[in-house]
Amino acid sequence: MNRPFTRIVHVIAVLLATASSSGAPASSGDGRGPLFGDPGTVLQAFERWKAARAHDGSLDRLEIGLAYTKGLSSRHTSAYGKATLDLRSGSLQVGARGLPASANEGYDIWLVDRRDDRAGGEETDSGSRRILAGHMDEIAAAGDGLRCSVAVPMSLGFQIDLIVVAPAGAAPEERGLLFGVPSLFQRLRMRELQGRSVGSGTLGALVEQGEDLFFNETFDGNGRTCGTCHPITNNLTIDVEFIDTLPQSDPLFVAENNPALAQLENPIMMREFGLILENIDGFEDPTNKFVMRSVPHVRSMAMTIASDAAGFPQSLVGWSGDGAPDAPGDLRAFAIGAVTQHFPKTLNRVSGTDFRPPTDPELDAIEAFLLSLGRDQELDLENLRFIDPRAVIGREIFTTTDTVNGTVIAGKCTLCHSNAGAISELTPGINESFDTGVETLGHPADGNGEPRPPDGGFGVDFDPATGGFGDGTFNPPPLVEAADTLPFFHNNVRENLDDAISFYNDEFNTSPAGLLLASMDSGGIGIVIEDEAVNSLFSLLYVVNIRESLRLARQFQLRASELTDSNAIARLLGAASAEIDDAVERMDEDELHLDLIPQLEQAKTLTATAQGTADMTQRNALLAQAMTIETTARDAMVNLRVLTGTQPAGLALTAENSSTPWLDPGAATAPGIRFYRVEGIRRISVERTNDDVVLSWSE
Fold this sequence. Notes:
The chain is built from 18 helices and 20 strands. By secondary structure, it is α+β, with helices and mostly antiparallel strands. The relative contact order is 0.09.
């Protein structure tokens, strides 16, 4: 998705010292830290981000997409661009293509600091500061553009919150066309280069504030919060079954309760099919130009949204990869778009009147919280040794990518869902978009008299062949979480996992993506999966989902054991119980590891008892029992690998060494795992990392 640019402006400035990160704003919570978000997950994602850029030499060269921004742009345009900020030299390059001819002889480049607690630059009525950085002339497509320079004194403390392309002589806030926003990681990198800390403490305060905003902040709108559609106890998504449990007063039903918002949603489509009205292609005609989409969960986003776009979008979010249609198409824009779309008091959507737009510090916090949810690393599916024989076969089918001229079953799932995540093996490291033909399927809602316009997927260009806006591609969600987040696909067209898998055995093969896979196959075959193979894939996805549910339950219980606030403990343990319920439900549905269900029911009872226990010592003892049960159950679904350092000569530490189990006193981080005495071993220390047990010892 790399795109060339035909207009270039080069700005020399002392930006490293002046473009400072917002850092960690004061938490709106009580300083206890986040409940559901894990700052360590954000830190790991930040380190991966830095490592990838250090590898290609771009660590200190920040690339920021420029595009139409619904909440900011003065009018719609399909133009786009990119700004490149060199943190070492302090140079900024900006390029754009597709800009309309300007009667004012070109476009100005503005740097805007939207925070009112900093000094420097030209102050506006809104309290923001701005610097006119350069100018782009109207030039031919092959032209180079005008080069200019500007010096910014280091003492100004100027922070880049926005990069704006506006017609020459126009105020950027009033007539800006293209907007770019540095991402959280880009801001953190600038903070590092200033010698300021970026660690668990900094990120902990940021994630805590983001969590509070996500679940509690209405942004002066219609009463909805992000948590309205992403409740923690329903796997951060909504479905028909969950919607049926809500009272009529719930903010989700604001379109039914407030006449001014009657067309904000289609109540029938929402209540019967779990579909939300989205103006993903622009707000210029919101009651006619829309699509109906399901609500994607927001777990494991740090592992699933990587884009290969040099400009827009920088992250693949939402079902079409442009779920954040505002520049630069990342999680910050995702939050801006969500507030504009779902929170307004009227469909006029006037910023400052119908809702309060999130501030830049708030956007930092929300982005940090979203990146803190779910898994902090991918599975190692090739090396997971499942106990259930159906899951073993399912893994083989999932990871087999060629039919060997039709002699083997190749599900080829891993090509688009590496390690059951959302990252492609076709373009390694990227969440790639595909046209899988889902939009052409018959939908259960068809014929009910309710409008369901064609959904064009990625992009905003009209396609007369489909009647939708976009190029027909959608981006894959992670599969580890799939069994808990049905129905499936962007429009909830498949109600259960069986039907979703069967789709790839049938209609998918005639789609552009299916034909692509066939062209890569030695026998020219797309995907052909026999019925039993479908069942095996079903079991595989259930096992990985059950294990993730139990991991999350333990994470919430462990966090609860650190707190004294009864309300916070109740929220955490309620979420933990919901995860245990999910695991038990999946086991029962597919008759997977049924012998573990009584143990998990006991873990849930212990959790409920702990929630009602005031004494912290007693409560934590109950939670420790529950966590041991959950970890033991999780481990019972796979054969754990034992990874060792320097092994004593002639000794192998495995379960076969002795029939007498022995658990080292220092192995508290790995409850429920059995270790065995080996003659000659004096001390064993244990470190648990997901599905590996790392052991070290001395003779």
